[in-house]
Design goal:
This protein is 34% helix and 16% strand. It has 349 residues and is α/β, with parallel strands linked by helices. It has a single domain, classed as NAD(P)-binding Rossmann-like Domain (Rossmann fold). Strand 2, helix 1 and strand 3 form a beta-alpha-beta unit. Helix 1 crosses helix 7, helix 4 runs parallel beside helix 5 and helix 6 crosses helix 10. The chain is globular and about 60 Å long.
């Protein structure tokens, strides 16, 4: 079995700390309070954008974190890694698809689904079964013929390959492990988000501005999305790990507020400057969803969680991180900033 990295609580010198939002409220009355002991948590997809922030948030709260990714897989010839079997919880943050990839590469979708279902099958036959927390998509699984905001009880009916894949993963989890938790995450953004075609409009636009390139906008500037900062998502994951009796088991994780693409552009321009934000408009693409945002009141009741990072604050911090990385690259301490591939860039997660 390939060795994996285990993170210890922050009392040990090797720990990295996470800037989980300090104003998040304590666990609410619907969910039991956090455990009195450090928990053992395996994070699959630990080097990904959300997974890496989740590891830091869990570590900061005193939990022991076991990291798994493509180079350190959770399963091998002998089955599931013993660290997972000894964990209290598993956070499945691994994915190789986004809305654009899912729409054009069904084989990648099939591999993504197979990896999760295979893991669940092995876990079902294991002597111990840690609770699994699955990161799903709040922006694509709901029926967009219904007016937002979408609560967890809103009609489901994804009209994209990505949404259908995420909903299938949810169904597999509920069928195999009904005591698990699904977190339906809105459009994530924040420092460290990779620039990938078809996903992450804020990251695309900020990197484009930093490189002196145009900001490509697909679809109607009035289309609204729910943007949630990655550190707020990490905080929700940590609270889902700590709650002992969640009800419901499916929870939305978003800002709870709609932001139009036009308003988002205004914020970007305020942060980076008008001169750095030249815009080119493009028609809507097949996988671009309609206006969506989430009702997150169930997460507040169950986890005591609300998103605490304002959009302006979050974009300003993300821009500062990109600027710092570019400065470091000039000094020879980091790779050069990404050069974007033109109008293939995305507008939604």
């Amino acid at each position: 079995m390939t060795a994996v990295q285990t993170r210890r609580p922050p009392t040990e010198p090797a720990t990295r700390r996470s800037a989980v939002h300090p104003t998040s409220p304590p666990a609410g009355p619907a969910g039991s309070p956090r455990h009195g002991r450090p928990l053992s948590v395996s994070v699959i997809g630990a080097r990904g954008f959300i997974g890496s922030h989740a590891c830091r948030a869990l570590e900061q709260r005193g939990h022991v974190v076991h990291e798994f990714d493509r180079t350190s897989p959770p399963t091998g010839p002998e089955g599931i890694d013993e660290r997972i079997l000894g964990s209290d919880h598993v956070v499945w943050a691994a994915s190789s698809i986004n809305p654009m990839i899912a729409e054009h590469d069904p084989d990648r979708v099939a591999l993504d689904i197979a990896a999760f279902t295979s893991f669940l099958s092995l876990l079902a036959h294991a002597p111990t079964r840690p609770r699994t927390i699955l990161l799903s998509s709040g922006g694509t699984v709901y029926d967009q013929d219904v007016e937002p905001p979408y609560a967890e009880t809103s009609p489901l009916g994804p009209d994209s390959a990505y949404g259908r894949a995420k909903l299938l993963l949810e169904h597999e989890l509920v069928h195999n492990a009904p005591d698990s938790i699904v977190l339906r995450v809105a459009n994530a953004y924040g420092p460290g988000q990779p620039v990938a075609p078809g996903q992450g409009v804020i990251s695309h636009w900020l990197h484009a501005a930093a490189a002196g390139q145009e900001l490509h906008v697909f679809g109607d500037l009035r289309a609204e999305r729910d943007y949630v900062h990655v550190e707020d998502i990490a905080d929700a994951i940590a609270r889902a790990v700590e709650v002992t009796d969640p009800d419901p088991h499916v929870l939305n994780v978003g800002s709870g507020h709609p932001t139009s693409l036009g308003s988002l552009l205004d914020v970007i321009r305020d942060v980076v400057g008008e001169d750095a934000a030249a815009v080119r408009l493009h028609p809507e693409r097949d996988f671009d969803g309609r206006s969506t945002w989430l009702d997150c009141s169930a997460s507040e009741r169950t986890l005591g969680w609300v998103a605490g990072t304002s959009l302006v604050e979050g974009i300003r911090g993300t821009w500062a991180a990109i600027a710092a990385a570019r400065t470091a690259s000039v000094d020879g301490d980091a790779p050069a900033a990404l050069v974007l591939p033109g109008p293939t860039v995305g507008t939604a997660s």
